[in-house]
Amino acid sequence: MRHRMAVGLLSLALLSLALLAGSSALAAERYVDSDEAKDETSNKTCALTDLKGLEANDELNWIWKAEGVKLGAPGKIQIDPIPNESDATDPEIGDATTKAFKLAFARVGKTEGTGGMRLKGCIYWLERSGGERAYIPWGGYAAQAGVGIEAELLDASGKPVARFRVWGREGGDPKQAAYEIADGIANYVRDN
């Protein structure tokens, strides 16, 4: 009898721990609860005023999408200029990023123009490639150039339908990372 009671109590305790761990894992999936949001060096924002709804995504770091909205429907999209508001100077990155978004959305079937969706964004973080980072753990990746982009997708009435906060590293030029992010966001819009 004592053995059954002990096993029952132990099972109950393990179940409670599992539920507690599960609820903490879910809470950590929100941007506002993340280490990135709490880190003063990486929490700079420039295009998004509301970060509360952003949730973790495997492909694109942080995403919010309005419920019931089909983003990938054919139609027009206006891409506003994407300025570099990071702490690093790069006279070409803004124009290159804007061009990347225009090409990526054309590739997934959106037509450039007004009267449909509108993408507003900015570059909040930029880091050039650096050989000095090649010798730390995961050095090959950390040595690559990196870009962080915030973007908000609005419907034809100006209402937000999706928000993205994405950073990535690719190659030796920050523009390569910007092209990867533009492709990722355009693919997400096409598929959702």
How would you briefly describe this protein structure?
The chain has 192 residues and is of the alpha/beta class. The longest helix is centred in the N-terminal third of the chain and has 26 residues. Helix content is 35%, strand content 23%.
Architecture overview:
With 192 residues, the protein is an alpha/beta fold. The protein folds into 2 domains: 30 residues; 158 residues, Rossmann fold (3-Layer(aba) Sandwich), CATH 3.40.50. Helix content is 35%, strand content 23%. The protein has a 7-stranded mixed beta sheet with strand order 1-2-7-6-5-3-4, with helices on one face. Strand 6 and strand 7 form a beta hairpin. The radius of gyration is 21 Å and the shape is globular.
Write the layout of secondary structure elements.
Blueprint: H1 2-27, H2 35-38, E1 55-56, E2 62-65, E3 75-79, H3 93-107, E4 110-112, E5 117-127, H4 139-142, E6 146-154, E7 160-169, H5 174-191
Parallel strand pairs: 3-4, 3-5
Antiparallel strand pairs: 1-2, 2-7, 5-6, 6-7
Helix pairs in contact: 3-5
Proportion of residues in extended strands: 15-25%
Low-confidence region ranges = 2-28
**Quick check: average pLDDT?**
82
- The H/E string reads HHEEEHEEHEEH
For the largest beta sheet, what order do the strands appear in spatially?
1-2-7-6-5-3-4
* CATH fold label of the largest domain: Rossmann fold
- Give the helix level as a range of percent: 25-40%
Q: Span from first to last CA?
A: 56 Å
Q: Output the radius of gyration.
A: 21 Å
> Count of DSSP E strands?
7
Largest sheet: 7 strands, mixed
Output the keywords.
192 residues, Rossmann fold, 2 domains
